[in-house]
Amino acid sequence: RPGTKRLPRAIVVGVKKGGTRAVLEFIRVHPEVRALGTEPHFFDRNYHRGLEWYRSLMPRTLDSQITVEKTPSYFVTKEAPRRIFNMSRDTKLIVVVRNPVTRAISDYTQTLSKKPDIPTFEGLTFRNRSLGLVDTSWNAIRIGMYAVHLQSWLQYFPLSQIHFVSGEKLITDPAGEMGKVQDFLGIKRVITDKHFYFNKTKGFPCLKKSESSGLPRCLGKSKGRTHVQIDPEVIEQLRDFYRPYNIKFYETVGQDFRWE
């Protein structure tokens, strides 16, 4: 088969339940992009297998094409920035972020569908609810502290090499958000409005045609799940908790995501 297996030039490094699968499915429609469909978890769980193992997983590309992979847990993995930097300091990084409160609820909803006997969202969120003490050791909460995780990346990569996608705008204006992704990757804006239609049942944009066939492509049934109902007071407490982190994040990246 034509082409060569190459290490990725761009990686979608985060965040879980932010919209990373949508970004990957949308960008791979581009003729100049080849993407690995599964999450290799190389820079967090499989690093010991070595770069050649990682390369062997990649799709074949022509010289004119870019290889992309996505593993959303990289963003919160302490060692990932250094490891990616050691592979190539020119790697372009894509981070899909969404309102951390909604993200946490979505994360919990996904876990609950696999483990129905876990404690309530409220029970896991607080170390002490009456004092409003949030348990930052719970992954669903920790992931949304974007400003904290970003610091590890900025030790190795300049902001110009990291592109932030708004998970909210990805739903309301997929073509606009993907236009910026294409600009960031240095490829022509091929993916436009004409590639999308809005699926009312899922509440999500879908592709009119997928990469592999001429058929419409919506994300799988695990995407667009109805979220668990959470007490509004808990949501309010979480908003207060995340506010300083959000403000710091906006200031650092020079972009206001309007999560307030």
From TrEMBL:
Transmembrane segments: none annotated. Pfam families: Sulfotransfer_1. One of its GO terms (cellular component) is Golgi membrane. The keyword Transmembrane applies. Its EC number is 2.8.2.-. The active site is at K17 (for sulfotransferase activity). 3'-phosphoadenylyl sulfate binds at K17, G18, G19, T20, R21, R98, S106, K223, G224, R225, T226, H227. This is Sulfotransferase. Gene3D superfamilies: P-loop containing nucleotide triphosphate hydrolases. Disulfide bonds join C206-C218. Residues 8-243 form the Sulfotransferase domain. SUPFAM superfamilies: P-loop containing nucleoside triphosphate hydrolases. It comes from Leptocoma aspasia. Its main location: membrane.
